[in-house]
């Protein structure tokens, strides 16, 4: 029983390691300015994509 619990935790950590960067990129794609500090919610970058 203990081995299955550890393998579940291990699998969850691997999934977090793989999906966390994708989630962070999605969240920061709504940032109004470039960079790592949050400046506010905006759809500016999506407008830039569709203007091109």
Briefly, what is this?
The protein has 52 residues and is mostly helical. The protein has helices at 2-28, 44-51.
Number of strands: 0
Q: Can you give the helix content as a percent range?
A: 55-70%
Query: Strand percentage, roughly?
Result: under 5%
Overall spatial form: elongated
Mean pLDDT: 88
Uncertain stretches of 5 or more adjacent residues = none
Radius of gyration: 17 Å
Measure the end-to-end span: 56 Å
Largest sheet: none
Q: What is the element string, with H for helices and E for strands?
A: HH
| Total of DSSP H or I helical runs spanning 4+ residues | 2
Assign the structural class, choosing from mainly alpha, mainly beta, alpha/beta, alpha+beta, or little secondary structure: mainly alpha
Topology record:
Blueprint (H helix, E strand, L loop, with lengths): L1 H27 L15 H8 L1
Write structural notes for this entry:
This protein is an all-alpha fold. The protein contains two helices and no strands. The chain has a domain at 20-52. Helix content is 67%, strand content 0%. The N and C termini lie far apart (56 Å). It has helices at 2-28, 44-51.
